[in-house]
Amino acid sequence: MKHDSALRGAGLGLRRELIPALTRGKPDVISFYEVAPENWMDMGGAKGKAFRALTERTPLVCHGLSLSLGGPTPLDEVFLRKLRSFLELHRVPLYTEHLSYCSDDGHLYDLMPIPFTAEAVRYVAQRIRQTQDILGRRIAIENASFYTKSPVDEMSELAFVRAVVEEADCWLHLDVNNVYVNSVNHRYDPREFLRGVPADRVVYMHMAGHYHESDDLLVDTHGAAVIDPVWDLLDFTYREIGVHPTLLERDFNIPPLEELVPEVARIASLQQRYLPGSAKTHVSTAANS
After folding, report:
1. Domains and CATH numbers, the chain
2. Strand, helix or coil for residue 58
3. What is the mean pLDDT of each run of 10 residues along the chain (289 residues)?
């Protein structure tokens, strides 16, 4: 199966708390929504109908939580086939997952870092290829935030990300806030990291807030407004890599819709700054088997 779809603009995570306001009227600046499919695949009743009404009018991206690409247990093929039906039902142009793992003989309820080793590259890439085969489309993987380094690391975070997307032949979902969080926690230059990202693989981006635990520890919470240094980094990313569909994540401490719209609008404004003359005025998320 091969399916091509153009996704553009700035998006907002579709949280249940926001559905009443969005049903009354979606602000024009919101070009698409994103959901974790695990939270909606079995939703019926009034909530399911409200969800369907929104997705029939506005493109939907799915960002998975439970695939556990780096985990030791076999991929859940039953879940993946159910997911494929959900993606096709809602005409979802892009499915992304975390470059991490969240299971080990049971769900860990957190996203754990994968050791940066050549063996892990081969292992994760094989699981991504298997996922793509079952879903009948290419997926994107997201660079993850992490807080401790593995003692068996053989390469840098950037080298690991580059190796996985190359070996798996998948897209890259670039989380700008995660780059910033990791750069503080692990003391590297985020701009140098972004200069090394395989730009031709990037199809999608995230922006989010985080929690400032201390000067050398940031926690990726998606529970606060985006701070100015991360906005500056998004500006740099568009300048260096090009403009791609970009989502505002807000998963906790969710304010009213009218307080989130200005952040979505700021993403859209930055995109417009770099669209004229840009070679990447949109992304075609090609799903192929």
Report:
1. 2-288 (3.20.20.150)
2. coil
3. 66 95 96 96 89 94 91 91 96 94 44 83 96 98 83 90 98 97 92 98 94 73 89 98 96 93 98 72 40
Torsion, Cα 39 18 8 83, to 10 degrees, reads 10
Count helices and strands in the chain by DSSP H and E runs = 9, 14
pLDDT for the residue numbered 110 = 47
Q: Which amino acid is at 133?
A: D
CA torsion angle 87 90 91 94 (round to 10) = -50
Question: What are the structure tokens assigned to 137, written together?
Answer: 């489309």
CB 162 within 8 A of CB 199: no
Q: Are 36 and 63 in contact (CB under 8 A)?
A: yes
Beta strand ranges found along 79-209 (DSSP E): 94-98, 101-103, 107-112, 140-142, 171-175, 202-207
Tokens of residue 289, six digits:
């088997």
Which tokens is 216 given? 């050398």
Amino acid 112: pLDDT: 63
Task: For residues 251 and 208, give the distance between their C-alpha atoms in angstroms, rounded to a whole number.
Answer: 9
Confidence (pLDDT) at 283: 43
In DSSP notation, 199-221 reads: GGGEEEEEE---EEEETTEEE--
Please, are residues 11 and 248 in contact by the beta-carbon 8 Å criterion? yes
255: left (phi over 0), alpha (psi -120 to 50) or beta: beta
